[in-house]
Amino acid sequence: MALEHALLVSLTERAGSGYELARRFDKSIGYFWSATHQQIYRVLKRMEESGWVDGEAVAQDGKPDKKVYSVNAAGRAELARWIAEPSSTDLPRSEFGVKIRAAAHGDIEALCTEVARQRDQHAQRLEVYRLLEKKDFPAPEQLSGTPLHQYLVLRGGIRVEAGFVEWCDEILQALRPRASAPRAGFPYPPPPTPSAAIPLNDGESGAER
Fold first, then answer.
1. Could you give the CA distance from residue 143 to residue 12 in angstroms, rounded to a whole number?
2. Would 209 disulfide with which of 28, 43, 61, 113, CB 3.0-4.6 Å?
């Protein structure tokens, strides 16, 4: 997938400026496809030059005009073409997995520390996803259209993170007896609940995932 397609998806949900799109990525699509603000601005310009989006200058009180982008017919056609295109089934590269494979050649105690760190980071992300699910999709059985599609993507993230946490727990259970001096605190308790879920779109409903 190219960044262009992620931006097309976001713009079909709501038109916006480069700044607004960057904020959406930080709080929604960015969980699944990361991009810097500079990359987003550059790609938006390229998309406009390619004829996929239209940019309209909008006046702001006391501020410079902003350019709001919207998807045009050519952009929707490109998005439909891309959706129909087969996606890659290649497995993602995993440095972490290779380290586990090479455990016999390293310090098991140090490796357990790294596994625990990875486990805790993914557990924290899982907690954020579950808070977003509870906040933005309290009645998933009533969803349809774009909100349903957003919910299904979030459910995919929840399953991936839950599976990774379980895998790390399995690794620690298997490696811990081999550690020369297991670190105090095993088994690791679940991470603390974040003080607040990360909002999806500045306090609006979950329509920008």
1. 18
2. 28
